[in-house]
Amino acid sequence: MIAINGMEIPKSCSQCKLCVEDKYADMTCVLLCEEWEESDYNENHRDERCPLVENVTCKDCKHYRNGLEHCTQWVMSTNDDFYCADAERK
Hints:
- The chain is mostly beta strands.
- The protein has strands spanning 19-21, 27-29, 34-36, 64-65, 70-71, 76-77.
């Protein structure tokens, strides 16, 4: 798994920085290796196969107790920039 620091999940394929203009099609998704005509998708469409997911760090998780640097979900010490699969945004 990788994460791109500071990147937000786009609302649509046409707004995604990982969809690039291609000389053979209007756009190509570099993650799916899929070509598509920009006119086929409206500005609110996001392909259901899109692999982008949100990573929530401890500082934004409802289980994190700031000041104590403690996770109530796993009952352990942690720091604010750590993340896990069970994180839930506040």
